[in-house]
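Changelog-adjacent note: as of this version, every example in the card shows the full chain rather than a window. The one below runs 200 residues end to end.
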Amino acid sequence: MLLLASCAKAPKSQKAEAGDAEKEQNKAGVNYALDAAKTSVKWIGTKVTGKHDGTIKVKEGKLITQGNELVGGEFVIDMSTIECLDLQAGKGKEDLEKHLKSPDFFDVEKYPTAKLVITEVKKEQNGQYSHKIKANLTMKDVTKSIEFGANVTVNETTVSAVSNFNIDRTQWGVNYEGKKDNLIRKEVNFDINLTANKAS
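Full-length structure tokens:
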């Protein structure tokens, strides 16, 4: 069966280290509702012999600002929408998607959603990203805090946040290793582009 996969190594990107979950607080401010049509979450999984890439859809969410600065937010991911883009229908695409949704990986029937809740946002003075974000990521009922850089833009009508990072999937109980001659790497790359519109 085809497995979660990319050529040799995961894409070069920042590593979002997993730690103990942070305390979540209700943030007051201006709410921007997530625009699902303009929001994308792409993934790349790697193994010894190759890679697979695809998308997953955001179900709902919001970003919160105070004084023209991002201070919080959260969004829910619909795990049933995991899609592989590099395989064609009838040539392994359906098998891989079914396997990713199975108990070997994300066990979508038991855990239909994942969630990310922003707990802290700080401006970056230098570097590739404008802000440093801390967030609680919940998958398979496991919640871990992660930290990653993001480019954030806020204006009167929209907020956007763009980031690319790797996580170690085993920290959330996604432990399937693959076959002896085709081992799957622990790192999964996520490319996230969030857009939210000011609530009316």
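Structural remarks: Helices lie at 93-100.
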